[in-house]
Each structure stands twice: as structure tokens, then as C-alpha cells.
Amino acid sequence: MNTMRLSLFYGGLLAFAASLASCGTEAPADSAKTQAILDMKRATDHHSYSRPEEAVVTHLNWNAAVDFDTRVITATATYDIETAADAERIIFDCTDLTIQAVRVDGEPVDFELGPAKRFIGQPLTFPVNGESRQVSIDYQSSPEAGALLWVEGDNPFLFTQSQAILARTWVPCQDSPGIRFTYEAHVDVPQGTMALMSATNPTQQSANGHYDFRMDQKIPSYLLALAVGNVEFRSVGEHTGVYAVPELIEAAAYEFAEMEDLLVAAENLYGKYAWERYDLLVLPPAFPFGGMENPRLTFATPTIIAGDRSLVSLVAHELAHSWSGNLVTNATWDDFWLNEGFTVYFEQRIMESVYGRDVSEMLATLSYQGLVDEVDAIMDLNPDDTHLKLHLQNRDPDDGLTAIAYDKGYFFLRRIEEVVGREAFDDFLKTYFATHAFSVMDTDRFIDYLKSVLLNTEELLAAVELDAWIFGPGLPENCPKVSSARIERVDAALAGWEAGTTATDDLPWNEWVYQERYRFLSNLDDATSPERLAELDASWGISSTGNNEVLFAWLEQSIRSQYQPSYARLESFLIEIGRRKFLTPLYKAMVDTDQKAMADAIYAKARPNYHSVSTGTMDELLAWSE
Hints:
Elements (H helix, E strand, L loop, with lengths): L9 H14 L6 H10 L15 E13 L4 E12 L5 E6 L3 E7 L2 E2 L3 E2 L8 E6 L6 E7 L7 E4 L5 E4 L19 E9 L5 E4 L12 E11 L5 E4 L2 E4 L4 E5 L4 H7 L3 H12 L7 E5 L8 E2 L4 E4 L12 H8 L7 E3 L6 H19 L1 H25 L21 H18 L1 H14 L3 E3 L1 H11 L4 H7 L1 H6 L13 H15 L14 H9 L7 H11 L7 H14 L5 H10 L3 H13 L3 H11 L5 H11 L4
Parallel strand pairs: 1-11, 16-17, 17-19, 20-21
Antiparallel strand pairs: 1-2, 2-8, 3-7, 4-5, 4-8, 6-7, 9-10, 10-14, 11-13, 12-14, 15-16, 18-19
């Protein structure tokens, strides 16, 4: 841990207190507020050029025009800043931006774009001093900007994906999760489309294509988000609603009708929701993730619209981020588990509260299965990447987006719950979120806080084994055991079917929910014959299922068994869907089974539809060159 830098300014402290007051969240004691400001500068972020101890942004006014014909955003980013008394420069992160002019307090200044480095782009540097209060940057994005995907066709659509460090590809910013700021925006888009951001949002299209936004709570740059398209809005609760294209809006409103219940359950667990509204936008299928927790407006893949509300755990996950991640944020991407481990734990608790422990334990069992598989795979490549605390300097921070941060983090917190009891752990988490609201947290500080507040005896520390979990490889021996009677019955049915003692028609497929169906398919032996898959398909029509999680598991097994009747569905799935969680295993299965020619042929058709987050991974996997 680096020595804390103390060249800060009291204005930041006042702004922080104001941000807490504006959202209705109880401010911590003065010492905690001071600590929260210092935390923003404490952990060194190797993925940002910014030097916040010298000059740091506090508010963004973004004035932008979106051009679908050129696939370019033309904008001015005006920042309020705070500077140290001896400040000489301010540094922003940029990738593939054309910088046209820079002004400091309204006066033009010279600027320098440094050489580009892999992963982190270029530093934009220009002079400021201790009296500087505002900077403005005129610029244009590139048509190939990594955060942006321009969906072409009769109904064009634009969306951003800024996490982890792609905000710098569409806004010059101090692109570190440890730097938070408020923002307002004024955006012009083509008539007939609606603009939405991670801020206050419209519910009707404007006549002139102009939209205004405000985000009064401080956020890090990776939570900047923009979407533009022909969408409609439906309210599903007092504080919740959904946006989707007209042909999906009714299905989305039905699928996510229980969002208000999830929000109420979350507040009952860990305190008042701090962001006023919780809405969800259904994006085009090319969106590379299941969801992105942009404040006030979760971006979600349409692959979770199953018609039966069976995949709402993803909504619970993104909602949980409103506390773990958005409210209390990892200081650097080495501390990513502090966002995701907490969020998976919180997600499971929401699901248990709304749908019962039966369902949440099935989800936990599937998480454990995936975690064990991922640990085994990573241990063969780089055991250090199975630590919760990562070391990603000189690497793409996306390398940390594995099941380790999510599920090892979850089981670590579940272990603490086992040791101290649920009531004590719930009190700890509720206090943790309130005390550190709108601030950042690094791993070492979290350990200090945990030891001082909760694990404050040698016996408790020994029972948890912090070092083994956070700094050690693999899964510790005291990893909690999950138990699901329903999953056990699925495993028994699978064993009987594979042994030939259970007829395909005797499987209780129609009685199973998606978790049970997924477990059955994902645990099939790789050597299962195409003929046996044909039996399953004939009996249950799995190739035509509307549940994309089940379909994904089926297609992966079809590849491994070389069940060719599913290959047409495989190709259409990979061309239509850009969710990286699905793409990586499916393309990898083709490579592993000596079917790379098929993978290359499909990828050539599908690649133009994918976001850069997905193409970056698939290009490496397939050794792709255009």
C-alpha cells in the first residue's frame, strides 16, 4: 500500500459532504469524511495517467452531438477542478480522441498528447496552477472508439460500455475508479431517437432531439454511460421502470415487473437506495455483458428476457451494485473483488428474500461449480490470478473479470457470515455501506476496517483465514459448502440417464426450472454421443428453448459431442448475440474439438456485430487477423 498523499484541499471535503446530503444518505462522522477524501488519493492506479493529488476533477459539464452517419461524437467536456497550491499541470486519460482545443478558466492553453501505451492510451497534459478552477476540452471521438458500438440498420442504436477503462475512448477523463465527480450533460441526437444516460432520464422522445441530464451524486468515470435509439418507457413500480425498443417493450415490462420487489428487498437488507430511481434499459443483443450497473439505469442484454422471469437474478446483481460498487467503489482494478464479491453476496441475499432459499442455494451451487472450473483453469496458467487481491499493472484490467472476483469473493464473505453469524454480518454490511458511501475502498483498508469492526479477536481471524482468501491461490479449505436438494436430485437423474437406467422421456424436464435444466446440460459428459443428444432434443425441443442460459449450455455440449443438427442454431446464436459470457466458451469448445474452421467461418460473419470488449477476447482466442 502506498503512502497516503496529504496535499489535498478542504473544498473536496465540503463537496463530499454536500453529495451525501443531496442523496439523503446519512453522512459519516467528520473523521470518516476526511478519510473518504484521502482515500481517493491513497491507492496508486496503474491504469490511469491522472495525478489527482496535484489536480482533480469534481464536476463535468458535457455538451455533445451524436452523428450516426460518421459514427462520431463531437463534444466539449468542461470540468470543475480542484488543484493543490503548487499545481503545475492536470492530466487526463485519452484513447483515440482528436483533441481540438483546450481552455483553462476560459483562456486557450497549449496541450500535449503523450505517446500511446498498450491498454491505457495517451496522457493529455496541459498547465494549471493553484488558482485554476475550470478546464474545457473540445474533441471528437473516433469511429472505432472502444467503448462505443454503433448498431446499423433500419433502427440505428448507439450504446457505450465504459468499464473498465473505456470511458477515455469517448470522453477525456481522469479514468480511475478512485476519482469521483458529478455531471450534467446536454446531448443532441437524431430526431426519432431517445438519449439516455447514467443520470436523470426522459421517458418520452423530445421533438428536437435535444436532451438534458443531471447526476448529482458523485460517480467514477467507468459509470459514465450513454445510449441512443428508438426506445419506449414503461413504469413497473413507484421507483422502477424499463426502456426497450418498441417490439420488446411489452415483453420487457412483463419480464422485469418484479423490479420494485427486488429494490424493496435490497433496502430492507442494507439501507436506503441512494440513487432515487432504478430503471433498466434493454440493449441490442450485441451488448457484451449480461448487465452493467450504470447508476439509475442498468444496461441489460436482451438474452435475459426468457418469457418466464427466470433470469431476474441478473437484475438482482446489477441492483446490488447500487450499494457495492456504485456507492462504495474499488479504489483500483486490483481491488475489483470489493465490487463484485460483495455484489454476488448481496444478489444472493436479495434472491433468497424474494424467491426463497431454495432458489438462492441453487444459484449458489451453480456459482460454486463455475468457480471450481475457473480456478482449475487459471491455476494452470497463473496461480496469482486466483488471489482476490490482484496485480494487474501493465495488463488489461479486463483480465480481472473472472469468477475469482465474483464467486471467490462471494464465498469469502459467506465464510465470514458463517463465522460471525448472519445478524452480526448484516449489521456490519449496513454500517459499511453507510459509513463509506460515495467513497472508495482498497483491499488493505478493507482488511483494517474488518479487523477493527467485526473480526476483532484472534479466534475470529483464525476461523476466517483472511490471508488465505485474499492473498492466497485457489480456494481455501474452509470454503463454505453449499447444499441444494433440488440440484442433488438433478445430479441423480443425470447419473441414471448416463448409465442408461433412466429413459429420456422419464426425465422431469418440464418440471425443472432453468437452474435445474442448466445443471443437467452443463454436467453432461463431454463424450456423450450425438445420438443421445438427439434423444434429448426430440423429447424436449431443447434447441428451440427461449431461455438463453439453457440454450447456451445445450450448444456448448452440442459442439463437444459434435451434434450437427444444432449447428445451424449455434451459428445464428453466435451471429445474433454478443454477450462475452456465451461467446468465449462456445468458440473455445470449437477450438478444443478441432472444429476451428467452423469457428473462423462463423466469427467472420459475426465479428462486425460484436462490441470491442468481445472482439478483443475472441481475436486472441482464435488468433484472428483480418
